[in-house]
Write a structure and sequence with these properties.
homodimer; 293 residues; mainly alpha; two-stranded antiparallel sheet
């Protein structure tokens, strides 16, 4: 398969759907809708919603059924970036090569734009059709749990509290599980649920998501150390400057790279039951690993 | 009926249910759950969830069915207070007589505690049972819309943008509709929906909520001007100090008081179809108006 073509087509579908779900920038009050759209349409890779759609396809589901879940996870991801970038959090000026929300709209509106995207994620997901195995309420619970205080938000709290401290390997693993793997896994699970996946397939895709999510975060940590600001589109070396714990800082670059490969192999192994139906998910896992780290 | 006894019983039920829905303060990461509980159990009046339960009862519904919706609206209300109090918004140090979240936990954790309460609101509401007329997804859409960028969040944006400006009556009305009336109305509607209310009854309670919500905000504006900091439990005269537009500032105290009475009469009129089933809702409306303004 041609992954580049696939990604272009899926990204375009997600962008169109998000554009339809979000209030126009002309809707009152204009500022909040401009700010929500500024961050949502900032050239993100749409990795999570692409995984949602690919997981649905691997389970024999249709794209229209999976689209609300795909858009909801992207809104959650974008809100978390806006809030993480705030001066009272990671204090970042650049994101995806552009000034962060609070730099453009001010801190107050940035907080509210994040709140707005978080809220609309559930409004969008509530439009997903139920299947015989999974109610729309079950999808809502899945997303709320993964993005709630035990996982996504909890990871950011642990991250904040870990700044300037020497974290152990398990502590860093906990932060990565919460901050990255939980939402990535939920993105995949929501796609599978929208396709009415059997419990066995849902469990296999959960394993896939957790391995992939950790791999993704380890690679991000490596890239932060090895790449330039220009190439990343965000301030490089930021984690080191903030004396944030990273995989390379704790385990060294070499072991980090090996760990990324090991996790990707585990992700591949979990896809075995799907046979050729998981060709796209496999290609996506390879694509993540093939980033230049 | 003895409203004081009723309020005590309902508030205790809501507090117990919230305590059960929220992760223990010992759940990792401890800080976020402490912060969420600090604001949620800060002695709030539980006005919105009490209205949810009373609306359900007026429609012949049971309290257990309405309890998830009641708890969800209280989580949304509390999150909005935490974020509104942030230094980048209204910059308030006191709330319900205690230091605000960011004063106790720092700004970063306060933003995240608000995010956590916003997220868990939907996790809780997703546990509400569907009725023949209203799916759980319909309840989710109701709450997400009322607390989203067009209403609750939109009102805060308009409020921020109006600071230091001379607002017109209609502009202030818009802010009050968004910031207060929308969530109050949704609280009432969610109670009615949990009781499988007929469309006609839902429409009547929508009118009730809008009138009551505006009356409530007008009275809050009046109290801010006329009461002392000690009695309010928050910084009094704050709106005037920030040259925020208020009903009394635009219309004068006398006209504001008349408007509060007029809105309460409208609220009462909308309850006519319910006969004596709405005795509690009537008593609650009177209770709001009877505040010493």
């Amino acid at each position: 398969m041609d992954l580049a073509l696939y990604l272009t087509a899926r990204t375009a579908r997600i962008d169109r759907a998000l554009d339809g779900f979000l209030p126009r920038a002309s809707v009152k009050p204009v500022t909040i809708h401009k700010a929500m759209r500024y961050s949502l349409f900032a050239g993100g890779k749409r990795l999570r919603p692409v995984l949602t759609l690919a997981a649905a396809e691997a389970c024999g589901g249709g794209l229209p059924q999976a689209t609300p879940a795909a858009c909801a996870v992207e809104c959650i991801h974008t809100y978390s970036l806006i809030h993480d970038d705030l001066p009272c959090m990671d204090d970042d000026d650049l994101r995806r090569g552009r000034p962060t929300s609070h730099k453009v709209f001010g801190e107050g509106v940035a907080v509210l734009a994040g709140d707005g995207l978080l809220t609309i994620a559930f409004e969008i997901l509530a439009q997903a059709a139920p299947t015989s195995r999974y109610s729309t309420a079950a999808l809502i619970r899945e997303l709320a749990s993964a993005s709630g205080s035990r996982w996504l938000i909890g990871g950011q709290v642990a991250d904040l509290e870990g700044e300037g401290k020497k974290l152990t390997g398990p502590q860093l693993q906990y932060i990565h599980c919460c901050k990255t793997a939980a939402l990535l896994t939920a993105s995949i699970r929501l796609g599978a649920m929208s396709a009415n996946a059997t419990p066995a397939r849902l469990a296999a895709l959960t394993d896939f998501g957790q391995a992939l999510g950790l791999a993704f975060q380890v690679i991000d940590d490596i890239l932060d150390v090895t790449q330039t600001t220009e190439k990343l589109g965000k301030t490089a070396g930021k984690d080191v400057a903030a004396t944030k714990a990273t995989y390379p800082a704790i385990h060294g670059l070499d072991r980090s790279r090996k760990e990324a490969h090991r996790l990707t192999a585990a992700a591949h192994a979990s896809l075995k039951p799907f046979g050729k139906n998981a060709a796209t998910l496999r290609a996506l896992a390879d694509y993540l690993l093939a980033r230049d780290y």
